[in-house]
Write a structure and sequence with these properties.
The structure holds two protein chains of two kinds.
Chain A: H1 2-32, E1 40-49, E2 59-67, E3 71-79, E4 107-109, E5 115-124, E6 128-135, E7 142-151, E8 173-181, E9 195-200, E10 217-220, E11 234-244, E12 250-256, E13 264-266, E14 269-274, E15 298-306, E16 317-319, E17 341-346, E18 352-364, E19 372-384
Parallel strand pairs in A: 1-8, 14-15
Antiparallel strand pairs in A: 1-2, 2-6, 3-5, 3-7, 4-5, 7-8, 9-11, 11-18, 12-17, 12-19, 13-14, 15-18, 16-17
Chain B: H1 2-26, E1 38-41, E2 49-58, E3 62-72, E4 94-99, E5 105-106, E6 114-124, E7 127-137, E8 143-152, E9 161-171, E10 175-181, E11 185-190, E12 192-193, E13 201-202, E14 217-227, E15 233-239, E16 243-244, E17 247-248, E18 264-268, E19 288-289, E20 306-310, E21 314-326, E22 340-346
Antiparallel strand pairs in B: 1-2, 2-7, 3-6, 3-8, 4-7, 5-6, 8-9, 11-14, 12-13, 14-21, 15-20, 15-22, 16-17, 18-21, 19-20
Classes of the chains: A mainly beta, B mainly beta.
């Protein structure tokens, strides 16, 4: 019981002392804050950072606020706490020294690393706006504050600014804006190399899809029965479809499966030659008649883009000589050797999507072309440079 | 109780940290990405035995002792499982050429869908390199396929890789082209055939006039022939010498010159000077008369003889047949007639 009574007595004493101390603090408050008894709030205040990355340089701070009172001088201090008039512990690493930005009628100073000041010849009222470029963000993650102080004075009178750590108490209005630096978000993703190329007998492939439903087997000839003419070109087409993300461009080459013959064979003899292999023939040729100094049966090719899916890609394919005239048929000597002959390639070194291409083969027989059923097999080879 | 709880929390944190480390290790990329790179096939046809020309650009200076080239059907991403393309086989591949980083040969660590190029490890500067691999069998299915390229310091593609990169290529349907060239034989005869065109052939009767013992009488006819018969053609003459009832002007056989005052009838296919008759064969073709009828001023006529032939296809040729007739004083009077049929056979 004694112990209990003693304890209660001591607690009562502590309660009494605490209450007295509180009364004293309340009593002293008017003394401490007397210097800004008339201070108003700053409204509509904001600062937009172009980057919240730690230590990022060249950051733009877009500042806007509206003081309650007329003002002709202001300061913006960047501190770790928001309360104006208290000691400003500067945000480590932050620097506005390299900042730039103007506001009409105001003289802006970036001389201090942690604060921006502005003065004018006469007071004004209303909103203030300033875009500051070239700021360096604080060097650690976390929240920091911009304390905004305005004075009902001008550059020459009525304001006195003391930069951190003590801001003084002569300002008219004040406010604060919280800002934050954060970790940047690092996102990794793999886009794998991709090349889809198909050759069809028809041209129904949609972008991103290879049909491969119509085997590209064609028969050249006119009339019934269909035979090669000696006086008119016989034509037939196959089609290719290309989608790729090859950044270095894509080339499509034509290769004969028979070495040494870029034309058509009968009994293993290349009597219908590729136009480029015919002595004296112009390459490309219209093939209206058999070309060459000694007219010879000939096979040629012309390449053209189809526009059906052109909207899927800004890149395109450009047919190469001698396949690019549209009205004449060419065949390079390289078709029957090595890796074949370049027939078309991307216009720019960039990916291409949904590129449909038409390959029209033309052939003509000569009077001395041996009778028979001619054939050959070709491949179109797409090579992407990644 | 509190200690046990703290210990539990400690273990949970330890496990999470361990898992995090494992995750980081799985994502470890040992080197840098290859620069510009490409793979060029000599054929994109399924199952074709093909040359693969691989070009690459190293982006970091490192020791390179081997290059692993993987062919996959699923993706080009290094470090993930590689599914071998159906039908693909590089077992017989030959490294036919190399540029840039050189000194490589195909290492025994290679498999059916993976080629390891190995050499004694050596420093490799940043730059381009290329490798031509021949004798590779293409996949058996059309579609997109991938190549993974990784460089290693070791000479057998063991250990961590340095540079890496992916490629893509496509196997496509081959284009089959066929065409029929029909057989043809163009053959016509006439006294004249202008402009190498049978439509311009005119006449089938030749009048030698009144025969003389002093000078040969002569005349000409023409034949046009062209064919795409692979084994060429032959033109023969079937008929009789000049006859009038039972009276005959003998044919010249073997060949002989024109001999006025001697009864003789013959022909050839050349330009002659004695007498001045005939022309050499004309036209863009290459065929020529057979030797017996291809000598100027030497005439002959044997029914069934082949006058001209060619062993292969030939463009248009126009032959001019020169006929001569001489008579002796003893030659019986009469109207002498000969009918000669020209036959052209093409050998397809």
């Amino acid at each position: 019981m004694y112990q209990q009574f003693k304890f209660n007595k001591s607690g009562l004493y502590r309660t009494l002392c605490t209450t007295m101390a509180a009364v004293m603090v309340v009593a002293l408050l008017p003394i401490f804050f007397s210097g800004r008894a008339s201070a108003g709030a700053i409204s509509s205040k904001s600062i937009i950072m172009s980057s919240s990355k730690v230590s990022d340089t060249g950051v733009t701070y877009t500042i806007a606020f509206t003081p309650a009172s007329s003002y002709g001088a202001l300061a913006i201090d960047f501190c770790t706490t928001p309360i104006a008039g208290t000691t400003c512990t500067t945000a480590t690493g932050l620097s506005v020294t390299g900042g730039s930005g103007t506001s009409a009628g105001w003289t802006i100073s970036y001389a201090n690393q942690y604060s921006i000041t502005a003065t004018r010849a006469s007071t004004t009222s209303g909103a203030f706006a300033l875009t500051v470029a070239g700021v360096t963000n604080p060097s650690s993650n976390g929240t920091f504050y911009a304390r905004i102080l305005t004075w009902n004075g001008t550059a020459t009178t009525g304001w006195s600014y003391s930069s951190s750590p003590t801001e003084g108490s002569s300002y008219t209005d004040s406010g604060a804006v919280g800002l934050s630096t954060t970790q940047t978000i690092t996102i990794n993703a793999i886009v794998q190399e991709y090349l889809a190329f198909c050759v069809d007998g028809t041209t129904t492939s949609a972008a991103g899809v290879c049909n491969n439903t119509s085997v590209p087997t064609i028969s050249l000839g006119t009339g019934s029965p269909s035979v090669l003419s000696t006086s008119a070109v016989s034509t037939a087409s196959v089609y290719s479809h290309l989608d790729t993300n090859a950044v270095g461009g894509t080339a499509i080459r034509l290769k004969s499966n028979t070495a040494g013959c870029a034309g058509l064979l009968y009994n293993s003899v290349c009597n219908i030659k590729g136009v480029g292999d015919i002595t004296g023939a112009t390459n490309p040729s219209t093939l209206a008649t058999a070309p060459g100094a000694t007219p010879t049966g000939a096979l040629g090719l012309t390449v053209s883009n189809l526009t059906a899916y052109a909207t899927y890609s800004t890149n395109s394919l450009t047919a190469q000589a001698p396949y690019s005239t549209g009205s004449s048929y060419g065949m390079g000597t390289g078709v029957s050797s090595g890796n074949g002959d370049l027939v078309t390639q991307t216009t720019t070194a960039a990916p291409i999507y949904g590129a449909n291409t038409q390959y029209t083969f033309g052939a003509v027989a000569a009077a001395n072309t041996p009778a028979g059923l001619y054939s050959n097999t070709f491949t179109l080879i797409a090579t992407g440079t990644f | 109780m509190l200690k046990e709880k703290n210990r539990l929390i400690f273990y949970v944190v330890l496990i999470i940290f361990g898992l995090f480390l494992v995750r980081i290790n799985n994502n470890t990329i040992y080197g840098s990405s290859l620069g510009t790179r490409s793979v060029t096939l000599s054929s994109s046809e399924i199952n074709a035995t093909t040359d693969y020309a691989i070009s690459l650009e190293t982006t970091s200076v490192s020791t390179v002792g081997s290059i692993r080239i993987q062919f996959c059907s699923n993706n080009p991403i290094s470090g993930t499982p590689c599914i071998a393309p159906n039908g693909f086989d590089d077992s017989a591949a030959v490294l036919s050429s190399q540029t840039g980083l050189t000194g490589f040969s195909i290492n025994g660590a290679s498999t059916a869908n993976e080629i390891v190029l190995g050499r004694a490890p050596a420093s490799a500067p940043v730059g381009t390199a290329s490798y031509s691999l021949s004798g590779i069998k293409n996949p058996s299915d059309i579609g997109s396929y991938y190549v993974r390229i990784l460089t290693y310091a070791s000479n057998n593609a063991t250990g961590n890789y340095s540079d890496y990169g992916g490629l893509a290529f496509s196997i496509t349907n081959a284009i089959s082209i066929s065409a029929t060239v029909p057989p043809y034989l163009t053959f016509c005869t006439g006294i004249t055939i202008n402009n190498f065109n049978c439509l311009n052939a005119q006449g089938d009767f030749l009048d030698l006039g009144e025969l003389s013992v002093n000078a040969a009488k002569y005349g000409t006819s023409q034949m046009l022939v062209a064919t795409n018969a692979e084994l060429g053609y032959g033109i023969s003459a079937q008929g009789t010498t000049l006859t009038s009832g039972n009276n005959v002007i003998p044919e010249i056989s073997p060949g002989d010159i024109s001999r006025p005052s001697t009864s003789q009838f013959g022909l050839n296919l050349r330009a002659n000077t004695s007498p001045a008759v005939g022309s050499n064969v004309q036209g863009p073709g290459v065929a020529v008369p057979t030797p017996n009828y291809n000598q100027p001023n030497i005439f002959r006529f044997v029914s069934g003889d082949t006058l001209a032939s060619n062993p292969t296809v030939d463009d248009v040729r126009v032959y001019t047949v020169s006929y001569i007739a001489n008579i002796a004083n003893s030659q019986s009077a009469g109207i002498y007639v000969s009918t000669i049929t020209y036959i052209c056979l093409a050998n397809f």
